[in-house]
Amino acid sequence: MTENLHHFFSGYFIPHGHCYLWKPGLVGLHIVSDFLIALAYFLIPVELIYIVKKRKDVPFDWIFFLFGSFIICCGITHIMEIWTLWHPDYWLSGFLKAITAAVSITTAAVMIELIPKIIAIPNPAQLTAANAALQNEIAERKQIQNALSQLTIELEKRVRERTAALERANELLQQENCDRSLAEAALRQSEAKLRSQAQELEKTLKELKCAQIQLVQTEKMSSLGQMVAGVAHEINNPINFIFANIAPASEYIRDILETVKLYQKHYPQPVGEIQQKINTSELDFIVEDLGKILASIKVGAERIKKIVNSLRCFSRLDEAEMKRVNIHDGIDSTLMILQHRLKEQPHRPAIQTMKEYGDLPPLECYAGQLNQVFMNLLSNAIDALEERENYNVSRVQVYQPKIRIRTVVVEHKEVEIYIADNGIGMSPEVMTKIYDPFYTTKPTGYGTGLGLAISYQIIKKHDGVLECNSQLGKGTEFIIKIPLKSKVRASKSCFEKVLVTEGAAV
């Protein structure tokens, strides 16, 4: 048997059992001792880990894991002691002992750093004293809590009393707010009413201003009409006398000249005194120029008659109600009155007027008011042409100012009158305000801003429409659309009433 064991454990190193002389009692003692030590070393880490898991409050719990590693390594070395009794693996045993030594040294080093912290952990006496102090503090806190409870009850009582007072005050405040809301509503209603009255008053004031200026204008036109009527009455008689005597005077002069020619024929050599008179008076020139003088007198008389008729036609004093008239006469009479502005001026050439009259039936209208519209539109056209001319002076441009007047009948129901100029034109911003009362782009003293507003109201009163097409720098065109039979409105504004009642004088 000894030979078999030697054969089994043969090698460079002998088994550790040779140290014990392979005595069964001694070998068994070492085996049992090492096994029990190893078992204890393996159980202790498990118990330490169990304690740490159950007591989460244990300080430095990680040190138990380090101790467990150290103890397990020690247990492994005792297992190796049993193993090397038969197997000479001393290199492995030495390597495991080296690991155990490293873990032991590490644990010892860590323990050196933990000693002050472990010593600082309170001992049971200190814990008892701390516990007693904690109990005292708990008792004091209970007293404080009881006092706080009493104060809380008192505070709640005061809060309830204060809440009840606040609720009463809130009810009073709500009542006051309700009264205030009613007062504010009444005040807002009053303000709205006053604002509405102010707006109505402002509107009325604006209409009154329009009416006042229109009354002044109407009065001027009425005075002009009366003056024209008086002048026409005073001029008509002498003009008719002159015009009526031109024909017989021409006949008489013709007879006298024929008689003179007969004398010259039959007495070619008059006496010296007569011959001297003929030479002095230039009888041949008189005979030649006398017909021209009579023709000029006739043209002048006809011109005066036309001017008087145009003035009377424009004023229309005898037409207080709507009646059928030829509007071409109104346009011509307006152009006749504006003739002095159409003529050539130092700063511009003469304005060329182009009339394209259609075959219009008589139009039912207030002739005097319609003539006033023609006057306003044509005057504005002339102003625009003069402004265009002044605009072009600095640019040394030559252009011919023109006013084009065109009339047409649309479907035998409506008359359309087009008054266009190639003046300065208007911007879109200005076009939105041209019918607003008192709005004007002319310098102060050159316009009231009521011309187009009055014209718009007059055309509107005729159930018509006044439209405007304009482009800045290219001219303006106004379009008047009036039905052949107009219906006067039953209800009229203050401004329209003035136009109706005073329109006859315009």
Automatic annotation (TrEMBL):
<dbReference type="InterPro" id="IPR003594">
    <property type="entry name" value="HATPase_dom"/>
</dbReference>
<dbReference type="InterPro" id="IPR058544">
    <property type="entry name" value="ETR1_N"/>
</dbReference>
<keyword id="KW-0597">Phosphoprotein</keyword>
<dbReference type="InterPro" id="IPR003661">
    <property type="entry name" value="HisK_dim/P_dom"/>
</dbReference>
<keyword id="KW-0472">Membrane</keyword>
<keyword id="KW-0902">Two-component regulatory system</keyword>
<feature type="coiled-coil region">
    <location>
        <begin position="127"/>
        <end position="221"/>
    </location>
</feature>
<dbReference type="InterPro" id="IPR036890">
    <property type="entry name" value="HATPase_C_sf"/>
</dbReference>
<dbReference type="GO" id="GO:0000155">
    <property type="term" value="F:phosphorelay sensor kinase activity"/>
</dbReference>
<keyword id="KW-0175">Coiled coil</keyword>
<feature type="transmembrane region" description="Helical">
    <location>
        <begin position="31"/>
        <end position="50"/>
    </location>
</feature>
<keyword id="KW-1133">Transmembrane helix</keyword>
<keyword id="KW-0808">Transferase</keyword>
<feature type="domain" description="Histidine kinase">
    <location>
        <begin position="230"/>
        <end position="486"/>
    </location>
</feature>
<protein>
    <recommendedName>
        <fullName>histidine kinase</fullName>
        <ecNumber>2.7.13.3</ecNumber>
    </recommendedName>
</protein>
<dbReference type="Pfam" id="PF02518">
    <property type="entry name" value="HATPase_c"/>
</dbReference>
<feature type="transmembrane region" description="Helical">
    <location>
        <begin position="62"/>
        <end position="84"/>
    </location>
</feature>
<keyword id="KW-0812">Transmembrane</keyword>
<dbReference type="Pfam" id="PF25487">
    <property type="entry name" value="ETR1_N"/>
</dbReference>
<keyword id="KW-0418">Kinase</keyword>
<dbReference type="InterPro" id="IPR004358">
    <property type="entry name" value="Sig_transdc_His_kin-like_C"/>
</dbReference>
<dbReference type="InterPro" id="IPR005467">
    <property type="entry name" value="His_kinase_dom"/>
</dbReference>
<dbReference type="InterPro" id="IPR036097">
    <property type="entry name" value="HisK_dim/P_sf"/>
</dbReference>
